[in-house]
Amino acid sequence: MIGKRDRTVPVGLAPMAGFTDKIFRLMCAEGGADFCVTEMVSAAALCYRDEKTPALAARRWGEAPCAVQIFGHDPAQMAAAAGIILDEICPGDEMGSPPAAIEINMGCPVKKIVKGGDGSALMRDMKLAGDVTRAVSDVTEKHGVPLWVKIRAGWDKNSVNAPEFGKMLCACGASRITVHGRTRDQMYAPSSDNGVIRRVREAADPSVEVFGNGDVASGEDAARMVEETGCDGILVGRAALCDPWIFGEIKNVLRGGGEPFLPAKEDRIGAALRLLRELCREKGEAVGVREARARVGHLIRGIRGSAAARWAVNRAGTEAEFEKILTDLLK
Prior knowledge:
Elements: E1 11-13, H1 22-30, E2 35-37, E3 41-42, H2 43-47, E4 66-71, H3 75-87, E5 101-106, H4 111-114, H5 126-143, E6 147-154, H6 162-171, E7 176-183, H7 194-203, E8 209-213, H8 219-229, E9 233-236, H9 239-242, H10 246-254, H11 265-283, H12 285-300, H13 306-313, H14 319-328
Parallel strand pairs: 1-2, 1-9, 2-4, 3-4, 4-5, 5-6, 6-7, 7-8, 8-9
Helix pairs in contact: 3-5, 6-7, 8-10, 11-12, 11-14, 12-13
């Protein structure tokens, strides 16, 4: 085993498309997240000046230090996108300052992303991945902002190349590497391999941080990852969707003390109502109600009556109808 239970490591929110917007990031920051990463932002869309894309990089007061994650495979385009984020204030951004970091996505396994040569597809072309990293690093270094890279274990079980890939990223300017312990072919199927994260930590330059990601759904999971990998920090993904308080629980366990916080039914329904109201305020009632359907379902899952409530909210047409369905769960 590597490491000790009393290690203090940062615990952050992993990027998830359609979920980790600035509303949810604030909720996770209040739940104890030390840092967050935005939904992934298309470098091509930024460079072509798509009107809606910059809003994905917007941050709000009160959220934890936040990195902006970009994806693409053209070095010049990726560098230009990083420059746009660092030189310009995104519409709706309340901070007016550079993000905590720029992160390159080399880990997304979704078919439409890898089909275009982005995300996990870059792990099949180490030279191109290195060219992308160096190009973005030149921009981030000029602005004094760290460069992070998110990777997977590899493309498939026959090409688990994360250790050598991570070593290459260190040489190309990355200051943090986050490793999701599954291959692209595994998608999100059980189970994530802590051994791969450990091997990346061993191969990487000691000055470069290595963070672990995958299957962290409790304080004990996080402690096991730290002990087995020696990682410098942890990211939580899907488990946070139904428990934005999990970050505080994890830090409590890692510090070796205290009882975990178990959110009551009232806490979870309160969070669901808040998310609904914030989405409607931010995006308008029609869009807010539509986007809240799947997201609220995570927060109320397991509460008695939640299955019927999820069915009902999928048919709710107004914020008021949606609210009544949620408040009825409190009875």
